[in-house]
Amino acid sequence: MTSITVEQLPALAATVVASTFALAFVFGAVAQRTGFCTMGAVADAVNFGDWTRMRQWLLAIAVAILGTNGLAATGLIDLNDAFYTTPRFTPLAYVVGGALFGFGMVLAGGCGSRTVVRAGGGSLKSLVVFLVLGLSAYISLRGALGVVRVYGIEPVGVVLPTHQDLPSLLAAATGFSKPALQRALPLLVGGALLVFALAHRDFLRFDNLLAGIAIGGVIVGVWFVSGYVGRLDEHPVTIEKAFVATNSGRMESLSFVAPAAYTLDWLMFFSDRSKTITLGVAGVLGTFAGSAACAIATGSFRFEGFRDTEDTANHLVGATLMGFGGVTALGCTVGQGLSGVSTLALSSILAFASIIAGAVAGVKYQAWRTERSG
């Protein structure tokens, strides 16, 4: 969109928010129906050698990469507008934050998105986890933990000579044509993941395909809403490029850690007219609503509480680690593992690998604890 008037801004913001809510509703409903869970995917692969849910995740990543870069190739969005691809590269933040998030999601019984989905399905302990996750994320954004993050972790980094998406980096390093790499790399990476996910015959079932295709498609859809529908080449007040209804001021897709903090902030200061529903908040609310609707419609809605004191402590510690780790790593299993990786950003690939490593360590720790107590 080229430009609009100040009077037209609220209507455009409402369109972005409503569209994101609708897409997130689909995300929540599909995740509830299919059991899509990134923590569960890691646990199944490590404990039982079952890669079914991991293939769901990889299929979703493949769809997200192919769809997102398809939008970019047609000029509908510009991946340089995403904060994942900025030249600022802080590897310590991605590694430490990702590992803490991955370990924490095992203790908490699921990542940020799974926490919202389970809460929508009646899990009271997931609701508690969400509250602690959001509080920890808020403290990591603007409070005491933010000081640790900003002054102790994020200074370890460099400013790259180009944007940090793989096509830009490889073009600068090899001299190959960047447009050619922007077409070839997504096809190569996304195609390889697609082949791997679909190669196992037992995986080719409706729910598995629905999980991967629909969830990956939702990521693409939110990029379109944020990066095309909500993009202003000239904001009517600042006369600069802007992205309506985003917290970062840049193009965004789904994520669940910082948006958990923004959701709590919006709820706590609801009567303050300066607090508005942003794309991130709409994503959280839509996911919760979609999960709840699916759970009620299918008769799977069940209230669930903590098992005992140890179970409570594990979930609280895990939620705290997810809040700090997700903010530090600039995303979670969805924020970095799907939205970020779909841009082929080096930071997202490193954060994604660190989340997996942290989750594997968490699964092995839980197994060790079980064996020791038994």
List the helices and strands and how they pair.
Layout: H1 9-34, H2 38-48, H3 52-73, E1 88-89, H4 91-107, H5 112-120, H6 124-142, H7 144-153, E2 158-159, H8 166-174, H9 178-198, H10 206-229, E3 231-232, E4 242-243, H11 258-268, H12 279-298, H13 309-328, H14 335-340, H15 346-373
Antiparallel strand pairs: 1-2, 3-4
Describe the protein in words:
- The termini are far apart.
- The protein contains 15 helices and four strands.
- It has 374 residues and is mostly helical.
- It is globular and about 60 Å long.
List the keywords.
15 helices; single chain; globular; 374 residues; two-stranded antiparallel ribbon; two-stranded antiparallel sheet; mainly alpha
| SS strand fraction | under 5%
The rough form would be described as: globular
- Quick check: average pLDDT? 95
Number of strands: 4
Span between termini: 62 Å
Taken in chain order, the helices and strands follow as: HHHEHHHHEHHHEEHHHHH
Major β-sheet profile: 2 strands, antiparallel
Q: Which percent bin holds the helix content?
A: 55-70%
Structural class: mainly alpha
Q: Ranges with pLDDT <50 over ≥5 residues?
A: none
Number of helices: 15
Radius of gyration: 20 Å
Strand order of the largest sheet: 1-2
The quaternary organization reads as single chain
Summarize the structure.
This protein is mainly alpha-helical and 374 residues long. The protein contains 15 helices and four strands.
